[in-house]
């Protein structure tokens, strides 16, 4: 049975803020209660139990506005532990719903003496109380303090115009112009994140928040399959510009959402770090082994499993790594022809190739990487010399030839915070790049990227979301 909305009044005013550290604050008519739990589900259960108690004390349903990482959610809660979702306008505009029988209309006054009385104004509604809690407090309080004006009345329907429209004869057109009756969009899946997702798991069908919908769009973009192999080049002329973590995260996200078929290639002409920061297989093969056996790998009799003896599979992130030559006494110098062979092998076995270019941009190998690239990604950190090197990389490509200039113009720049609390620096650098490339994105500092083996799932949720957004921007250029 649905909750009777006519029983809901303007009081009590209830708001709940759920923080990422599994702490929360419930505010009932200005009185705050602090909550802590071992996980987010436990915290939400505690908060809802307390709201049920408030509804039971009042003996009627109440309205509660909740704010968490998924956004603002409005709920109606009854004393018998029923919960219903309501739209955002209702959640932000709690108001009294009259329950009494409408009063009889007053007697019609004498038209000669009657004065037009002003329309009665709605009672001022209470606003949700603010709560001094930790992040995401500013956004939460802003959403909970929205104005509580009544919704505008819909304009009256002009019946004569409606009838005239119905009587208008249908203009005949060719069947080629007929629109399909089939909806181009599938049904929207219920929410899976935050308070909305928790309620969906309880069987309460509630739509996803705007944040979750935006994330679903990004996932759809990185999940796309293209005809033929696509190649991404990650380039910056200076070391320490976050090229290796960028290659790793891009490859991981594409592989996780598109079903594999992704190769990360360390194209550093010297000893690259991609092999150091990724999982090692049960062999020691490098790019030199692929070159030595390229004829067999490219033969018509070769099968998909043959490449497994030359690449190192990332069991958690589901993509493969082709390492650079790591011999301490190696003498092989990569050439443009070598790059062409490597790319041919990669195109035979993989749908997507993410290349780490290394730091030397004057050899024929670097030039051939550019020739094979579909989307250029230029990473940098908040360190000024790395940002300057990124800018010089773009300038050099712009002066190189027409194709390289187009890559630079359509590049995606990804700026990583080198230290915590450098968002303002990252934003300032981003504004410097924005007029010259297709897109600029920033990602937060994450200690999981500073050293050691990189596993994408070990990143913070904020970092994973930022890298997904960046990867979606890259995907749009493929």
UniProtKB/TrEMBL annotation:
Residues 230-333 form the AAA domain. GO terms for cellular component: cytoplasmic side of plasma membrane; cytosol. Residues 65-135 are annotated as: Disordered. This is Chromosome partitioning protein ParA. InterPro entries: AAA_dom (IPR025669), P-loop_NTPase (IPR027417), ParA/MinD_ATPase (IPR050625). Pfam families: AAA_31. One of its GO terms (molecular function) is ATP binding. GO terms for biological process: negative regulation of cell division. Residues 125-135 have a biased composition (Low complexity). It comes from Paeniglutamicibacter gangotriensis. SUPFAM superfamilies: P-loop containing nucleoside triphosphate hydrolases.
């Amino acid at each position: 049975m649905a909750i009777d909305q006519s029983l809901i009044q303007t009081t009590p005013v209830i708001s709940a803020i759920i923080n990422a550290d599994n702490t929360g604050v419930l505010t009932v008519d200005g009185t705050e209660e602090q909550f802590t739990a071992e996980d987010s589900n436990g915290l939400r259960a505690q908060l809802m139990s307390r709201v049920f108690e408030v509804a039971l004390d009042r003996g009627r349903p109440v309205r509660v506005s909740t704010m968490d990482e998924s956004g603002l959610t409005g709920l109606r809660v009854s004393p018998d532990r029923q919960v219903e979702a309501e739209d955002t306008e209702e959640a932000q505009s709690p108001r009294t719903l009259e329950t009494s029988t409408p009063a009889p209309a007053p007697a019609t006054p004498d038209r000669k003496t009657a004065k037009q009385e002003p329309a009665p104004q709605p009672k001022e509604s209470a606003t949700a109380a603010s709560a001094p809690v930790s992040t995401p407090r500013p956004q939460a309080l802003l959403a909970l303090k929205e104005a509580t004006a009544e919704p505008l009345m819909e304009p009256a329907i002009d019946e004569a115009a409606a009838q005239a429209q119905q009587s208008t004869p249908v203009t005949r057109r060719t069947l080629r112009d007929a629109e399909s009756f089939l909806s181009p969009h599938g049904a929207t899946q219920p929410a899976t994140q935050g308070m909305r997702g928790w309620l969906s798991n309880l069987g309460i069908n509630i739509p996803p928040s705007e944040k979750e919908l935006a994330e679903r769009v990004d996932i759809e973009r990185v999940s796309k399959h293209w005809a033929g192999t696509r190649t991404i080049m990650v380039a910056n002329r200076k070391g320490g510009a976050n090229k290796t973590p960028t290659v790793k995260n891009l490859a991981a996200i594409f592989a996780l959402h598109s079903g594999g078929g992704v190769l990360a290639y360390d194209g550093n002409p010297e000893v690259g770090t991609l092999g150091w920061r990724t999982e090692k297989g049960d062999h020691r093969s490098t790019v030199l082994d692929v070159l030595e056996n390229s004829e067999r790998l490219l033969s018509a009799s070769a099968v998909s499993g043959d490449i497994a003896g030359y690449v190192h599979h990332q069991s958690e992130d589901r993509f493969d790594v082709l390492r650079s030559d790591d011999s301490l006494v190696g003498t092989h110098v990569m050439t443009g022809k070598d790059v062409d062979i490597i790319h041919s092998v990669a195109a035979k076995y993989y749908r997507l190739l993410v290349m780490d270019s290394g730091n030397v941009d004057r050899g024929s190998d670097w030039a051939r990487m550019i020739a094979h690239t579909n989307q250029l990604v230029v990473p940098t950190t908040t360190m000024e010399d790395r940002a300057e090197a990124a800018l010089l990389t773009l300038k050099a490509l712009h002066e190189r030839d027409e194709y390289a200039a187009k890559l630079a113009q359509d590049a995606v720049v990804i700026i990583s915070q080198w230290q915590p609390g450098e968002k303002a620096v990252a934003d300032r650098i981003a504004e410097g790049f924005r007029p010259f490339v297709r897109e600029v994105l920033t990602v937060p500092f994450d200690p999981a990227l500073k050293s050691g083996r990189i596993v994408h799932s070990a990143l913070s949720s904020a970092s994973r979301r930022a890298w997904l957004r960046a990867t979606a921007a890259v995907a749009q250029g493929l």
